[in-house]
């Protein structure tokens, strides 16, 4: 039963550290945009990986 006097303060300290870390990360902008990093990989620039003979032909007035 004496261990409860040790476990309750440790639990309170851990919870307060977790709450502080959450509010710090919100303040730093960690949760501002959750969608863009997941979609950014789909629009990765792979032009240098495509062989020259497999690339589509570009019009003269368009830049590659």
Automatic annotation (TrEMBL):
Protein name: Cbb3-type cytochrome oxidase assembly protein CcoS
Basic and acidic residues: compositionally biased ranges: 52-64
TM region(s), chain numbering: 6-26
Matching InterPro entries: Cyt_oxidase_maturation_cbb3
One Pfam family matching this protein: FixS
Annotated region (Disordered), positions in chain: 45-64
Keywords associated with the record: Membrane, Transmembrane, Transmembrane helix
